[in-house]
Amino acid sequence: METARAFARIVTNRLSTLLFPPVCVECQSLVSEPGSLCAACWSKVRFIEKPYCPVLGIPFSHDLGAEIMSAEAIADPPPFHRARSVAVYEGAISTMVHQLKYSDRTDLGPWMARWMARAGSELLNECDVIVPVPMHARRFWFRRFNQSAELARNLGRISGKPFEPDALKRIKPTQQQVGLGANERIANVRGAFKVPETQDIKVRGRTVLLVDDVYTTGATVKAAARALLRGGASHVDVLTFGRVLSKELSV
Ligand SMILES: [Zn+2]
């Protein structure tokens, strides 16, 4: 029975590959693996690699040594311990986020999570539990899909660490952050998250890896991290797929 099922799965996969050959997410040229990028689009991705600020994870133009923090991290220390992202949010990286979010391209989730596991390997190794940035129940009801939970679920599968989608709740229906200025974003998510009393056992005294699709100004993950710390988490690290860079840091 198992063999028959496995065989049926292989046939279905082959058939869907024949009918829908995998194409590059960005430019639609043929590629070998579904959910991936062609060589040309791949070469344009700006992956975020060291040297970067050990706290905020934003790239430095020069290597200043592992312990040197960015001026931003010193002037406005975030509630989280460390933040890491795969690549700069532009071009193919933003296309992937949009397709996962609005086109139900769940096939992109495992591929994106593999890259997140690589960029955030240290954070993933050290965490006790993986928690996605939640959606408000009303929006979830309409969309039926939370892209951050999809990425976090795949990270749980890759690492074997517990994935806890209910550990954090969005208690205030917030506007979309898109189109809001930095201060409006902070006000919009203030008090938006809470660890429900029934859930605090999942985070109390533990190191939490908070997962979101994109880090823009950090307002959302900072509000979520504060709620997790209030709920008893000992540390919060943040891992996102895309990262908006307002400017490259040069020091
Ligand atoms: Zn391409």
Describe the SSE topology:
Elements: H1 2-19, H2 39-44, H3 71-75, E1 82-88, H4 91-102, H5 108-119, H6 121-126, E2 129-132, H7 137-143, H8 147-159, E3 169-170, H9 182-189, E4 193-194, E5 207-215, H10 219-230, E6 235-243
Parallel strand pairs: 1-6, 2-5, 5-6
Antiparallel strand pairs: 3-4
Helix pairs in contact: 5-8
The chain binds zinc ion (ZN).
Fold and architecture overview:
This protein has 251 residues and is of the alpha/beta class. The chain has two domains: 1-44, no CATH class; 46-243, Rossmann fold. Helices cover 39% and strands 13% of the residues. The chain is built from ten helices and six strands, in the order H-H-H-E-H-H-H-E-H-H-E-H-E-E-H-E. The strands form two sheets. A four-stranded parallel β-sheet has the order 1-6-5-2. The N and C termini lie far apart (63 Å). 35% of the residues are buried.
Quaternary status of these chains? single chain
Flag low-confidence runs. Answer: none
Molecular shape: globular
How many distinct domains? Answer: 2
CATH architecture group name of the largest domain: 3-Layer(aba) Sandwich
* Count of beta strands: 6
Give the helix tally: 10
What is the CATH topology assignment of the largest domain? Rossmann fold
Q: Kindly report the spatial arrangement of strands forming the biggest sheet.
A: 1-6-5-2
Give the percentage of residues in beta strands: 5-15%
Given the helix and strand composition, which structural class is it? alpha/beta
Give the distinct bound molecules: zinc ion
Distance between the termini: 63 Å
For the record, the CATH class of the largest domain is Alpha Beta
H/E topology pattern: HHHEHHHEHHEHEEHE
Describe the sheet with the most strands: 4 strands, parallel
| Overall pLDDT score | 88
DSSP helix fraction: 25-40%
As a whole number of angstroms, the C-alpha radius of gyration is 19 Å
